[in-house]
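User: Hi! I'm working on a homework problem where we have to compare a predicted structure to a textbook description. Could you give me the structure for the chain below?
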Amino acid sequence: MTGSYGPNSVAAERLLEDLDHLHPGAIAALAAAGGGSFGTAENDPNVASRSELRGRLRDIAKGAGRLEAIRAIGDEVASWASSTTHWFPAGVAGAGESTAEIGPRMAAVPVVLDAAYAVVLEDRLQDEELDLLLSPWEEVVGSPFGDRPDDTDPVTGRPIGEGDLLVADDDDLGDDSGADRS
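Assistant: Happy to help. Predicted C-alpha cells:
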C-alpha cells in the first residue's frame, strides 16, 4: 500500500484537495446527483445502481486489504461535511455562506464518498462500476486521476485565470505614460 489511501494515494489526495475548494454551487450539484430532496428522483436508475454498489464496497475493500484506506478517506469526507461548526436557520444571527453550506454538504456526502471510494478501489472495480461511482464527481469537478491539467479550476474546469478577475500587486501598477518618477 503506497500512502494512506492505497495505490491511488495521489488521486485520493487530489480529490480531497478539490473537495476542500468546492464552491457552494458545485456542492449543491453533487448533492443533486445523489437523489432525494436536493436532486433527482429516487427512481433514477443511476441513484438506485449506485446505492446497490455501495452495499458491496466494504466487501471489495476487505478483499483488497484496503479497509483502513476506505476508513481514512471516509473520515476525511466526514470531516469536510461537518467542517461548518455552527448551523443557524437562514437569516438568523447573520448566518453566512459557510453556515448555509452544511445542508448541501450533508446531502452531497454519498456522492463524494462514492468518488472517494472509487479512487481507493479503482483497480478492483469493473469499468462500469468505476464510471457509476465517479461520473457525478467528474461531471462537476473533473477527474481525480489527472485527466485535467493541474492549473484547472476544479469548479469550472477552465484553466485558472481564464475569465477570472486578476488582482495586481502594487508593483504591477505603474504609470503607462512612460514618465520616469524616480
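For your comparison, note the following. The radius of gyration is 20 Å. The first helix runs from residue 9 to 20. Good luck with the assignment!
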